[in-house]
Amino acid sequence: MIATAFRIGVAVTSVALAHTAAALEACGELRNSFGPWDYRAAPKAALENVETNHFDTGVEGLAKGVTGSLGGDLSYTLRVFPNHPRALLAMMRLSFKENREKPRGSIYTVECWFDRAVRFTPNDASVRVLYGVYLIRKGDKNEAVTQLKEAEGLAGDDPNVPYNLGLAYFDLGDYDKALEQAHRAYALGFPLPGLRHKLQEAGRWRDPVSSAVGPQQEAATRDGSLPSKKE
Q: Which pLDDT does position 1 carry in this prediction?
């Protein structure tokens, strides 16, 4: 029995190593002459340097590159900060704008930029959400759900994560999940009403039930009936 378990473990490890090796070959190593740094804890000076010289408002808005092509400046930014969420979003938008998996001037495909971000910071919920959104737009719903579920487990108390998760689940047609994430986001103080409006327009919005309400009353509220009065 022990030998069998060991063989299974070796097989799983071999698959993981093969996947890592394939990712390295296709999407490159993460080592860089400058960085890389985790965007969430990056040195302020390094972040200001890169964003000033390679990721200004013109690049983020896909209007004009700073040093050359948009894809080139975004590539530089993502090599230094693989999990830079706004740069990942901009690269994704550029890909759809050009209708190219590998935008002009980009070193890698968009899929590779997400692969690199996940390898570098596997615990970054924002990366997983953005990856899920990208996969939804590509039509790969099964893998999108995988990434979104990873994001759920990493979300913490950042209201941006459940809000964007809710939007992604809404696009998938999973309105119950979208409503659950909307309730979480608004409970954490997210200010924008867009997700609520989407659910309202779809006839799927329900106000959150107070935690003081018991299970029977909560179920009754969901199905529209009224709880019976106790004598």
A: 34
Domain ranges of the chain: 24-122, 125-206
Q: How far apart are CA 228 and CA 219, in angstroms?
A: 12
How far from 147 is each of 42, 53, 58, 153, 167, CA to CA, in Å? 24, 32, 30, 10, 14
Across the chain, which has 231 residues, the per-10-residue mean pLDDT values are 33 40 76 94 96 96 95 98 98 97 97 97 94 91 88 86 90 94 95 96 92 46 41 37
Q: Which has the closest alpha carbon to 122: 153, 159, 163?
A: 153
Residue 82: asked if its preceding bond is cis (omega within 30°), the reply is no
Residue 102 is classified by DSSP as S
* Angle in degrees, 0-180, between the axes of helices 141-154 and 160-172, rounded to the nearest 10: 160
pTM: 0.74
Give 125-206's CATH code, choosing from 2.40.30.110, 2.60.120.330, 1.25.40.10, 1.10.357.10.
1.25.40.10
Tokens for 78, please give them. Answer: 């993502």
Provide the b/e sequence for 76-86 (b: ≥16 CB within 10 Å): bbbbbbbbbbb
Structure tokens at 41: 């804890």
Q: What is residue 220's predicted lDDT score, i.e. its pLDDT? A: 43
Instruction: Indicate the Cα dihedral angle 64, 65, 69, 74, nearest 10°.
Output: -120
What separation in angstroms does the CA of 85 have from each of 74, 208, 218? 11, 30, 38
